[in-house]
UniProtKB/TrEMBL annotation:
Protein name: Phytanoyl-CoA dioxygenase (PhyH)
Entry keyword annotation includes Plastid: no
Alphabetized Gene3D superfamilies for the sequence: q2cbj1_9rhob like domain
GO molecular function, one term: 2-oxoglutarate-dependent dioxygenase activity
Keywords noted in UniProt: Dioxygenase, Oxidoreductase
């Protein structure tokens, strides 16, 4: 039977650094300028949080996880070998890798991620869930324009943060993230679909918002770099028509104290957290207590 790493709320190895007397928060802290950029524009890009060995470890584990008969397949919250609405394109999208493989588990406690996340959340960091978004070479599918929090309203208040981490170089040609800077100040929008028509969001936007959507910012990243974004940031990504894959892991976290707003399980296969109660327990571990990171 496959190991379920959700039972372990600490790193299982030394694959990623740990905060010690020799390796402190200062080694991973964002600058005041980086934090100001996040609050002004709704995102911060180009922060390197994985080294080459860590990238290769995660790529190796990912190769196993994309095989339909992989060990641990019963542990996923959601698994779509192809979520694309276009039959000619492929978008691999899955939630729950942290439960299935030690590398994807241990990266949650990587201080290169947690210290920065604590600064941007202004508090302790609790895990919400992870995602894999993979676009194969030549026919990788789109991720339509959306706001993350539109899918997450069953957790309140809105004190969430997304960290998108490239496992390959991500470019405008192979389907990198695209942001609408400043859209984190827009109100919450209705869900218009995640893997279908890029322009479906147009039906819920004002004329001014549509004008902003016409000039997105392509977030080109080197493998191992990440982009943090606000839960209301409008973002998406176009198809991959290049001869290179575009693979990414996404870590979604909340400031400790965010509560469930639903008595039903928040993710398939998890224990319910009663409405009004803070996220906690086996499936929502505390990753970083905040220390003096803010």
């Amino acid at each position: 039977m496959a190991t379920d790493y959700s039972t372990c709320h600490e790193p299982t190895s030394d694959r990623f650094p740990r905060l010690t007397s020799a390796i402190g928060q200062a080694d991973f802290r964002l600058t005041d300028e980086q934090i100001a950029h996040y609050h002004e524009f709704g995102y911060l890009a180009g922060v390197r949080i994985l080294d080459d060995a860590q990238i290769e470890l995660l790529r190796s584990e990912l190769a196993e996880l994309t095989q339909p008969d992989h060990e641990g397949r019963e542990l996923w919250y959601e698994y779509n070998s192809n979520e694309s609405a276009d039959p000619d394109l492929v978008l691999f999208h899955a939630l729950g890798a942290w439960r299935t493989r030690p590398g994807f588990h241990d990266m949650l406690w990587n201080p290169a991620f947690t210290v920065a996340a604590s600064q941007l959340l202004d508090g302790a960091v609790r895990f919400w869930h992870d995602q894999l978004f993979c676009k194969p070479a030549n026919h990788g599918g789109v991720v339509a324009w959306h706001q993350d929090y539109s899918y997450w309203t069953r957790t309140q208040p809105m004190a969430h943060l997304t960290c998108w981490i490239g496992l390959d170089d991500a470019t405008a040609d192979n389907g990198c993230l695209q942001y609408v800077p400043g859209s984190h100040r827009w109100p919450l929008l209705p869900i218009t679909g995640l893997a279908g028509d890029m322009q479906a969001i147009a039906e819920v936007l004002s004329e001014g918002q549509m004008q902003q959507l016409q000039n997105p910012t392509a977030i080109e990243l080197k493998a191992g770099e990440c982009a943090f974004h606000h839960p209301l940031m409008v973002h998406g990504s176009f198809a991959n028509r290049t001869d290179r894959p575009r693979r990414a892991v996404v870590l979604n976290v909340v400031r400790d104290g965010v509560c469930s707003a639903d008595d039903k399980p928040l993710l398939d296969g998890t224990d319910p957290v009663a409405a009004g109660q803070p996220l906690a327990g086996r499936f929502f571990p505390l990753l970083y207590d905040g220390g003096n990171a803010s």
